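At this stage, I wrote out one protein, both as residues and as discrete backbone shape codes, and that material follows here.
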Amino acid sequence: LEGYAPVAPEAMEARAAAFRALMEQRRTVRELAPDPVPRAVISHAIAAAASAPSGANHQPWHFVAVADPAIKRAIRGAAEEEERAFYAGRASAEWLEALAPLGTDPDKPFLESAPWLVIPFMQRRGGPRVGDNRQNYYVVESVGIAVGFMIAALHGAGLATLTHTPNPMKFLTRICGRPADEKPFVILVVGLPAAGARVPEHALIKKGVDAVTTWL
């Protein structure tokens, strides 16, 4: 085991507090600048995601990083088609009421304006080594943890992110050229905030640690 050198309790607390302060600044940003982001930054974030724990260490994920304008345009077109159906009747009244304070609608210009879209695909079969073809376990949980790692890594690099989940997302399998037995998990939109970018006041409501924790 490496990477766990002794740390004094006061240093542990300082590290934990610094990371908490960093992550408390994170916001979902829908107004992203087209400024380029180096591919190496995205690669480091994917590597951080791929270091996440997973069921049986099978690492049931594959990440597609999209910068090509034509592919982003195709993704936006297909996503907005699903979103129009969602807002026109697929979503329940309660769901639409919950979204209303965020000001969202079927238009998703950020899918084209952002320099990168990163799409994690869940793999039902695989294994710890390239070429394995074994049953994967806790796939949704594993990929969800990996995406959390990636969001933290990108935020730490100074980038803004947006998690976009049109439903259904089968079109991503086709557009990204992935195998039919893989399932897209989310579209992670990545870039720098646009000048004057705003976030909904509703998004600033966060439950405090005491409200979400029970100590036994």
